Amino acid sequence: MAPSPGVPSATDVLVVGAGPAGLVLAIELARRGVAAVLVEKGATLFPGSRGKGLQPRTQEVMHDLGLADAVRRASRTYPKMLAWEGPEGTTRGREWDMIERSEPTGQSPYGDAVLIGQAHLQALLHDRLVRLGGRLVLNTELTGIEQDADSVTAHFAGAPDIRARYLVGTDGGRSTVRGLMGITMTGETVDPKPLLVADVILTENAFPDDRNWHAWTSHPDGGAVLCPLPGTERLFQLVAQYSDPAAVPDATDEGVRKLLAARTAVAADQIAEVVWASDFQPRAALADQYRAGRVFLAGDAAHIHSPAGAQGLNTSVQDAYNLGWKLGQVLKHGAPGALLDTYEAERQPVAAGVLGISTRLHREALLGRADSRGDEVKGLGITYRGGPLATGRAGALEAGDRAPDGTLPEGRLFDLFQGSHFTLLAFGTEPPRLDTPQVHVHAMSPYEPYGKGLFLIRPDGYIGWASETPQGLTDYLEAVGAL
């Protein structure tokens, strides 16, 4: 079969699945000049909001991708939870914060998680990809994978093959890529009772307003919550859990309307539209490997979470952010292929930790505990200390730590980091001369969060190498293809 118009038959990286992880990975490759094709089996981008919370660390990623302002305009702060009581569900009960509020600081400029529906975030990411010259190919369903020592060949239903040097499966919890590669997942059912998730648009006269996250918990069939989403007027995310583990959720438009009318104070004629709906079982599972030869898994294809703690989307974005710069170094700068092995070594333990957090929060919520989420869900404490790309320490920081932000006379640190390069910061010591455009070198004014020393910041904002002297820096840069 001849290649489809405009779709190359060969590329460096084929990304399968255009959710947040796939889009971020495609952006990372595009801004590094890596030839890539992003394919999606659907006719459109996913229209709903499986994920809706961007944690502070993920907002930092959006800053680096040039999307901080767009995300800020398109998002909102988390509203307070409000419990509704009484036989009609219209009596105001207690009000509380789902997240512990934090003020932004110089080191962490994004204090709290923000709400943005997954569909809206994907639209922003897609727009950024297009502006970088990347392209999304829809209606392209993967049916087979073959690989040899040099490349991967992907087969599609009714479309020509694409040959790539690497393939990345970012195609969700029911990943076709994972299944074709025979990669197993280890995990457990977090809760035997099924959930229904839907995005609904309510009429102007509907009972709930957009000032709160509304909760009804007294119906014998199970509770329901409605969270207002920004971007579309009167758009809410519905999450309903069933009391009976044997219940079969009805995700049809009519089923969603009946559930809302039965369990909440929303009348049937106040539901203007059911945008999207799906049922799922709360599970926690982790892929036993993130790589099989030239094929990688990222996002929900590699880990499945309970929605508690708003971790799934965030972990997925950060997978892509980690893998993207490494693929770029190997494909554009001749870094050793072993650099790609560090993706699993770094990200799999992070996902395992996140699974533990989300599972615990889900089960505590079932017991009526853990009303709010604290610092553990914000992603700012993620570290790669002791990992294969973490060497040394200096001042107040150790290699593997997230590099703090700060505004100094030389500029804002996050702005200095922004882009596909490495950044060498010299605090209180003379910076070495480096003859490579891949490393931007800055002599900095004193700044307590760093202390004295040399700090090499990776393209994903983590400290790769740190020392009080330049000894060992050249070796590190050669290992990551930056010299």
Model description:
This protein has 10 helices and 29 strands. With 483 residues, it is of the alpha+beta class. It has 3 domains: 10-76 and 113-189 and 284-377, FAD/NAD(P)-binding domain; 79-109 and 192-281, D-Amino Acid Oxidase, subunit A, domain 2 (D-Amino Acid Oxidase, Chain A, domain 2), CATH 3.30.9.10; 391-479, 3-Layer(aba) Sandwich (Glutaredoxin). Strand 9 and strand 10 form a beta hairpin. Helix 1 (20-30) runs parallel beside helix 4, helix 1 packs parallel to helix 7 and helix 7 (312-333) packs antiparallel against helix 8 (341-366). The chain is globular and about 75 Å long.
For this entry, give a set of tags.
D-Amino Acid Oxidase, Chain A, domain 2; 24% helix; Glutaredoxin; 28% strand; globular; 3 domains; eight-stranded mixed beta sheet; alpha+beta; FAD/NAD(P)-binding domain; seven-stranded mixed beta sheet; 483 residues
| CATH topology (level 3) name of the largest domain | FAD/NAD(P)-binding domain
Share in β-strands: 25-35%
**What's the end-to-end separation, in Å?**
42 Å
Strand elements, count: 29
Largest sheet: 8 strands, mixed
Helical run tally:
10
CATH architecture of the largest domain: 3-Layer(bba) Sandwich
The level of helicity is 10-25%
Radius of gyration: 23 Å
Structural class by helix and strand composition: alpha+beta
- The CATH homologous superfamily of the largest domain is named FAD/NAD(P)-binding domain
Runs in which pLDDT lies below 50 for 5 or more consecutive residues are: none
Shape: globular
> Any idea of the CATH class of the largest domain?
Alpha Beta
